[in-house]
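Project channel, design review

CF: Before we commit to the Cardamine amara subsp. amara constructs, I'd like one complete example in the thread so the newer folks can see what an input/output pair looks like. Taking E3 ubiquitin-protein ligase XBAT34.
RD: sounds good, go ahead.
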Amino acid sequence: MRQQQSEEELLFQQVSNNDVEGIKSLRHDGAGLEWVDKEGRTPLILASSKAELCDVAKTLVELGSNVDGSGFNGETPLHHAANKGLENTVKLLLSHGANPFVLNDDSQTPLEIARAKGYSNVVHAIESHICLFSGWMREFYFPSFLEFFAPQLLSRRVWVVIVPMASRNPTKPFKLELRVYASLQDANPKMEMPLWKSSLEEPKSYQSDASVMIVDNSKSPKHTRAGRRSFVSQGRRWVRVDTQIRLKLAAATEGDTQQLNWFCEACKGNPQPMNPPMFLQASQTTTTTSDPMANVESISQELTASAPPSVDLSHVNMSLPSGTCVICEDASSEAVCVPCGHVAGCISCLKEIKDKKLGCPICRANIHQVIKLYHV
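CF: and here is what came back for E3 ubiquitin-protein ligase XBAT34:
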């Protein structure tokens, strides 16, 4: 037992010495890869903390090191690489399956650590790995009445990404957030919009230079002091101004409807037609079925994570306990709306809504049938 521990300690020392061949030899002889020193570091954590040890980190990963093995303060190798601004090591760990959503004991993800440190290269490396959409777009800014006269003077290039946010509760699904950067040199976005609390006005077919408008409903005048209407002078007229946050975006190249469509789909939880993020691939393979009833529970669980911004959720009390009817806020949620598949309320409330032809309380789609669910 002592000999095995000695070999593991020696392997850790070889990591510090940047001796790749020594590491391979010790591993071949049976040395473990998860030994922890007094500072709470595994060999991979040590290698992920220094730029000159990137090749060593690659060797350890290929030999079977746990890429999500945590040490002191619950920090994984990815946390340590992000904390040091080591872009190549971050990309290495991500390419080998490191989980970018792991929280340390301070409830920080590697992305949040990199952002706090100002490492824009690491921030964008992680975001590009997890995003549903990324790319340059044009942001239109107001006053909007000038748009018809000189639209080219009212737009600026911005870097836009749509990323899932880490859930503090591992049983809760991801929620999507839109982030807008003035440049790729910025570690912190100039604007963040929670898509699960926003509404989306999609492009109009008749627009020569199509654009989309996103409104952050969490800043609505109905709910926040910041949203109260104020009055500003415009000549001799007084105009009411709504301080609700709005974002108007167009494709980077005028007339590029494909990019704009990709962006709109990503807002709804559908990634660009490229390699989708790993955390989405599993869910996509399990939800492709012709039976609309097969996935009603999974649809319900993912409701708050990827509800399309075009859906108005302001009438739904999202603070209710999971499984509670969103209409009477008393009975359990036990029935599904067909064909949309939302498990939104109790059987009596949903039948009443169906009879009144009010539509699904979640997405407003027509309800053809209400079916009670029975849990085993």
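RD: helpful, thanks. Residues 136-276 form a domain with the PH-domain like fold (CATH 2.30.29).
CF: The chain has 13 helices and twelve strands.
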